[in-house]
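Sequence only, no structure available. Ideas?
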Amino acid sequence: MAKSPFFARIKADVLTIVASIPEGGVVTFRDIGAHLDVMPRHVAYILKMLDAEERAAFPAGRVVAKAADALDVAALPHGVPRQQRPANAPASRR
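Reply:
I predicted one. Tokens follow.
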């Protein structure tokens, strides 16, 4: 079954951000979710559902649930703009 174009965009953005995390650095699911205006659970789902080839290419282990020394997602060199839902978008259940 094909995923929606929205899911494809969010997945591409998540992978772009994850690829920009430097070795030895970590970011949280929550911080990536906040940057993309999606639930942290969606970020975790995207990373969990990577196939073997994608897992080898992306350092998904650098995304953690909590970390006192987590990097600022906006400061990473990924080029993904901060997302914000339009005013007329349906309310989320966060």
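Residues 5-19 form the longest helix (15 residues).
Hope that gets you unstuck.
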